[in-house]
Amino acid sequence: MKQEKLTIGQFSELVGLSTYTLRYYENEHLIVPKRDDNNRRFYTQDDVKWLGFLLHLKGTGMTMSEIKTYVQFRAQGDSTNRKRQKLLEEVKKTSTRSNC
Length: 100
Prior knowledge:
Order of helices and strands: HHEEHHH
CATH topology of the largest domain: Multidrug-efflux Transporter Regulator, Chain: A, Domain 2
C-alpha cells in the first residue's frame, strides 16, 4: 500500500509543531524526511508515528542531547536495549529529584 506524501506544512499541522521546529529536528538528525524527484522533502504516516515517539521521550523530561543519544542507541539495534533502559532510568531519577 502506497503511503500518502505529506508536505512539511501538512506534517506540521498534523503533529502540532511549527515548520521551524521540524527543520530543527531534521538538522539534529532526529527526523529524516524523504525527498521526491524534485528534492522536496515529504513525510509519511511512519514519520508521524516516529515524531510521536520523540515527543513522548521529550515528555519524560529528556534533554535534546539525551533524546539524540537514545535515538543513536535505537538505530544500533536490540543490542542496545540495556543502554536505552539505563538512560530512561537516569532521566527518571533526575526528573524525580527536580520535582522534590
